[in-house]
Amino acid sequence: MDLRLTFLGTGAGYPTPERNVTALAVERGRRLYLLDCGEGTLRALQAAGVGYGRLRAVLFSHFHADHCLGLPGLLQTFQLMGRERRLDVYGPPGTKEFVRRAVNLAPFSPGFCTIAHEVAPDTPVELDGLTVTSAWMDHSAPVLGYRLQELDQPGRMDAERARALGVPEGPALGRLKAGETVIGADGRTVRPEEVVGRSRPGRSLVFSSDTRPNRNLTELAEGADLLVHDSTFTGEHRERANETGHSTAAQAAATAREAGVGTLYLWHFSQRYRDSDTHLSEARAVFPATEASVDGLSLELPLGKD
Ligand SMILES: [Zn+2]
Ligand SMILES: [Zn+2]
């Protein structure tokens, strides 16, 4: 199943022509999830060509304006589109009140349910084959960081070998892939391990949102394929980062190194910087597998080899 991330907004505080405020789209198969939903998220989804009608859930890190003001407009648009399917919204305490206000902000009667869930870090949430774990970050408001962990995926099917063993085309192949034994055309029993490779580890994505470096995040991100981390400031403004509950690029990189992640993506850049070159060089000096996100950047997370 394809797993794709698209950065919809990579700036902090307020939107500019170059960077929208925070939002990230995660597409897995036909399902779409949003991590935060800052003002302008709907247009960013359209610009990135992400089909937002299939949005399944929104996960909020916290309710500072640059992370959440896109929800009321998104709900109203769904109403205009005639949405009937429910929308789930997850987040820290305060999520139920925020959703209630978002639904009632302008007079409209949605034809669909928006269900708010207040998440407890010790209780993972199951979302269509993804396990969502959360942890408290260290910011000026209660912030949840999230880990989206896919279950292990079935190995690759050797269709030619299956055919040679007399497995008929169609549902029998799917049953083998799901780990069941099937009977071939000549009555021979075919076991899954004869035609399906070893299962492949599920992919994992960790999203810090606004935070100072902290132990919970290092633990949450342990061994993740990808970490998206607050990188509001460069080293020159380290004090400011600490005062406002954010991280520098080098601090993000130190967390990525300690957690042993595959790739680090910096985001949530302060609008005071013209570009992210300094962030990137400071971070790469600590953790070379670092990239700087830009609005509209979209990447596929491949499954590991079997
Ligand atoms: Zn923010
Ligand atoms: Zn914040």
TrEMBL record:
<keyword id="KW-0819">tRNA processing</keyword>
<keyword id="KW-0479">Metal-binding</keyword>
<dbReference type="GO" id="GO:0042781">
    <property type="term" value="F:3'-tRNA processing endoribonuclease activity"/>
</dbReference>
<feature type="domain" description="Metallo-beta-lactamase">
    <location>
        <begin position="20"/>
        <end position="194"/>
    </location>
</feature>
<feature type="binding site">
    <location>
        <position position="64"/>
    </location>
    <ligand>
        <name>Zn(2+) 1</name>
    </ligand>
</feature>
<dbReference type="Pfam" id="PF23023">
    <property type="entry name" value="Anti-Pycsar_Apyc1"/>
</dbReference>
<comment type="similarity">
    <text>Belongs to the RNase Z family.</text>
</comment>
<protein>
    <recommendedName>
        <fullName>Ribonuclease Z</fullName>
        <ecNumber>3.1.26.11</ecNumber>
    </recommendedName>
</protein>
<dbReference type="InterPro" id="IPR036866">
    <property type="entry name" value="RibonucZ/Hydroxyglut_hydro"/>
</dbReference>
<feature type="active site" description="Proton acceptor">
    <location>
        <position position="66"/>
    </location>
</feature>
<comment type="subunit">
    <text>Homodimer.</text>
</comment>
<feature type="binding site">
    <location>
        <position position="66"/>
    </location>
    <ligand>
        <name>Zn(2+) 2</name>
    </ligand>
</feature>
<feature type="binding site">
    <location>
        <position position="139"/>
    </location>
    <ligand>
        <name>Zn(2+) 1</name>
    </ligand>
</feature>
<feature type="binding site">
    <location>
        <position position="67"/>
    </location>
    <ligand>
        <name>Zn(2+) 2</name>
    </ligand>
</feature>
<dbReference type="Pfam" id="PF12706">
    <property type="entry name" value="Lactamase_B_2"/>
</dbReference>
<keyword id="KW-0862">Zinc</keyword>
<keyword id="KW-0540">Nuclease</keyword>
<feature type="binding site">
    <location>
        <position position="62"/>
    </location>
    <ligand>
        <name>Zn(2+) 1</name>
    </ligand>
</feature>
<keyword id="KW-0255">Endonuclease</keyword>
<dbReference type="InterPro" id="IPR013471">
    <property type="entry name" value="RNase_Z/BN"/>
</dbReference>
<feature type="binding site">
    <location>
        <position position="268"/>
    </location>
    <ligand>
        <name>Zn(2+) 2</name>
    </ligand>
</feature>
<dbReference type="InterPro" id="IPR001279">
    <property type="entry name" value="Metallo-B-lactamas"/>
</dbReference>
<feature type="binding site">
    <location>
        <position position="210"/>
    </location>
    <ligand>
        <name>Zn(2+) 1</name>
    </ligand>
</feature>
<comment type="function">
    <text>Zinc phosphodiesterase, which displays some tRNA 3'-processing endonuclease activity. Probably involved in tRNA maturation, by removing a 3'-trailer from precursor tRNA.</text>
</comment>
<keyword id="KW-0378">Hydrolase</keyword>
<feature type="binding site">
    <location>
        <position position="210"/>
    </location>
    <ligand>
        <name>Zn(2+) 2</name>
    </ligand>
</feature>
